[in-house]
Structure formats: structure tokens, C-alpha cells
Design goal:
By secondary structure, the protein is an alpha+beta fold. It has a single domain, classed as Alpha-Beta Plaits, CATH 3.30.70. Helix content is 13%, strand content 31%. It has a two-stranded antiparallel ribbon with strand order 1-4. A two-stranded antiparallel sheet has the order 2-3. The relative contact order is 0.38.
Length: 75
């Protein structure tokens, strides 16, 4: 039986992210949420809410128009 994939980290590049939140809406496991804090450009960026719930589907990466998010899988 195959082990379920797990994420070691989800990296959001604050220099590329423009706060569109496609990643928070597309995630089927509710892993990401909108930050309460505004960044230096005036954007509310996504943050990881529940890394344990991530199933490494990469939907957030595939739908990010700015290539600002990366899911790092456990080995």
C-alpha cells in the first residue's frame, strides 16, 4: 500500500505574489488562507494555515499565474 504524500513546506515568494488568492480558492484541502497583514506593496498575501492537510496535489502551483508558490514534498 502506497503512503500518502506529505508536504515538508509550502513556499510563497512574496516578491512574485500579487495577492490574487487563486491558490487559496483552488486548494481542495483548505491548506492556505489570506494573511491578516499587508505586505510592503499593500497586498494581503496567502499564508500556510494547515501544512498537515496538504496532499501535495500541486494545484496551487499549477494555478498561480506568477509562479510564486512551491510545494516541497517530503522524501
Amino acid at each position: 500500500m502506497a503512503m500518502a504524500k506529505k508536504a515538508r513546506a509550502i513556499i510563497i515568494d512574496s516578491e512574485f505574489c500579487k495577492g490574487c488568492h487563486l491558490c487559496t480558492h483552488i486548494c481542495p484541502h483548505d491548506v492556505l488562507e489570506t494573511s491578516d497583514e499587508v505586505d510592503n506593496r499593500g497586498f494581503y498575501l496567502p499564508v500556510v494555515k494547515d501544512l498537515e492537510s496538504c496532499r501535495v496535489c500541486h494545484l496551487c502551483e499549477m494555478h498561480c499565474p506568477d509562479f510564486a508558490i512551491a510545494v516541497v514534498e517530503e522524501e
